[in-house]
Specification:
Helix content: 40-55%
CATH topology of the largest domain: Rossmann fold
Bound molecules: adenosine-5'-diphosphate, magnesium ion
Order of helices and strands: EHEHEEHHHEHHHEHEHEHHEEEEEHEEH
Shape: globular
CATH architecture of the largest domain: 3-Layer(aba) Sandwich
Number of strands: 15
Radius of gyration: 23 Å
Structural class: alpha/beta
Oligomer: single chain
Strand order of the largest sheet: 3-4-2-5-1-6-7-8
CATH class of the largest domain: Alpha Beta
Number of helices: 14
């Protein structure tokens, strides 16, 4: 199973590139589903077909299916309860460690439905590959950070998962009457499904994020921040697509200047996303609509060039191309350990690290991630941090004062991907 998430600033061509990718993957022999989690659905428009919540075959391209998740209404009511409950608990406890801005990241019902649907479709076994057309930058980050955010609130504020479930269930059923078992089970299932959805999307052997951008400075700047934030949250960015490049051979003074500014933006792109495949798509004279035009666009997108070939676009489900290395890794021995995670494009000055209970809190600008430390590292002191090869490396030293007598030799050892499992 392969999942490709497409994200980027509004209007850069996420929907078009997603659709073209899905057309190419289906042509390569993979049973492919194109699905949009953007409430402003437009994959139906770009394919020139009517779509529904359930996957529909796309006429003209055997093996291609498309669906648009209907996120409105279905879940709004119960999520509003959970949300206001959590906010209530937070203010009642007056917890100093919970920052006001963290409340804001509690997402809306739409994101939850989108995640659950994605997981359901992936688990159906009906598809080899799923291409996801995501909402613009901000919403996508909220979507991807969601399970961890919920996990954090759940554990931190309420104690054991069982107690969380009971309390949330009670708040959903409303005050009159006792929480009923059906609702309680439903909420329990919801939380575990969300964790499973995150596990699916944070698994770099399954899911890769493809940043879509246009060669404009503001767009590139946003893509750079997105690259950092996605990496911080543990998602593998696997490629960059530059859309709407001026085609060679069109002239005039106006276009000459535009070409010049695109060239400058491309220099930034190349410097910023070094090591990732950078694919290029020219502006076409007309909006690419329908399977035939999307296939033409895909031919440009996946044309042989400096970027490595997309395995699905050519020969069916092949091996996954290397991303940015392991998501998170703990190495070291004898009381000295390093935790490293991909964190590209960060200035030292923008980075803040702190410990909060058993968590390590990494803040970059206005993006924050709480990383549940493997138990061995919880008993270590943080000794410093450095950047190497696009990764943040944090040094830990065993602190004998924190180890129970006789256990001081216990080693955290290598715990590849440890933090991926430990949400919250
Ligand atoms: N390479 C291209 N050439 C010409 N028009 C394009 C190209 N890529 C996208 N468009 C057009 O640009 C507009 C925005 O693209 P869209 O894929 O909807 O962006 P997003 O999903 O990022 O908002 C659409 O009208 C689309 O048809
Ligand atoms: Mg779109």
């Amino acid at each position: 199973m392969r999942i490709a998430l497409h994200t980027g600033k509004g209007g850069v061509g996420k929907t078009t590139i997603s659709a073209a990718t899905a057309v190419a993957w289906a042509a390569g022999g993979a049973r492919t589903l194109l699905v949009s989690t953007d409430p402003a659905h437009s994959i139906g428009d770009v394919l020139g077909t009517r779509l529904h919540g359930e996957p529909t075959p796309v006429p003209g391209r055997p093996g291609l299916f498309a669906a648009q998740v209907d996120t409105r209404g279905r879940f709004e009511q119960s999520w509003r309860h959970i949300r206001s409950y959590l906010v209530g608990v937070l203010s009642a406890r007056g917890m100093a460690e919970v920052q006001a801005e963290e409340l804001v990241v509690l997402p809306g019902a739409e994101e939850i439905v989108a995640l659950l649907e994605l997981r359901r479709l992936a688990a159906s076994g009906d598809y080899d590959a799923i291409v996801v057309d995501c909402a613009p930058t901000g919403e996508t980050l909220r979507l991807l950070a969601l399970p961890e955010t919920i996990g954090f609130y759940a554990q931190r504020l309420l104690g054991t998962p069982q107690r969380v479930l009971r309390t949330i269930a009670a708040s959903i059923t409303g005050l009159p009457g006792a929480p009923n078992a059906t609702v309680r089970d439903a909420v329990g299932e919801l939380l575990s499904e969300l964790m499973a959805a995150r596990a699916l999307l944070a698994d770099p052997t399954i899911t890769g994020v493809r940043l879509v951008l246009t060669p404009e400075r503001m767009v590139v700047a946003e893509a750079r921040r997105l690259f950092t934030a996605l990496s911080l949250h543990g998602f593998a960015v696997e490629a960059v697509t530059v859309n709407r490049l001026l085609p060679p051979g069109v002239g005039g003074e106006f276009l000459r200047r535009q070409r010049e500014s695109q060239r400058e933006a491309m220099t930034q792109v190349e410097e910023s996303f070094q090591g990732l495949p950078i694919r290029r798509v020219p502006t076409r004279p007309e909006e690419p609509i329908g399977v035939a035009q999307l296939a033409e666009l895909a031919a440009d997108l996946f044309a042989a060039g400096p970027a490595p070939a997309d395995p699905l676009a050519t020969v069916g489900a092949g091996p996954v191309t290397a991303g940015t290395g392991p998501a998170m890794e703990v190495t070291g021995s004898d009381g000295w350990y390093q935790l490293s995670l991909p964190l590209p494009l960060v200035d030292r000055g923008d980075l803040a690290l702190s410990r909060s209970g058993t968590d390590l809190v990494v803040t970059v600008g206005d993006v924050r991630r709480r990383i549940a430390l493997p138990s061995g590292l919880q008993r270590c002191t943080t000794e410093g941090a450095s950047f190497a090869g696009g990764r943040l490396v944090i040094d830990f030293a065993a602190d004998p004062a924190q180890w129970p007598a006789g256990l001081a030799a216990g080693v955290p050892g290598a715990v590849p991907g440890a933090a991926m499992a430990g949400a919250g």
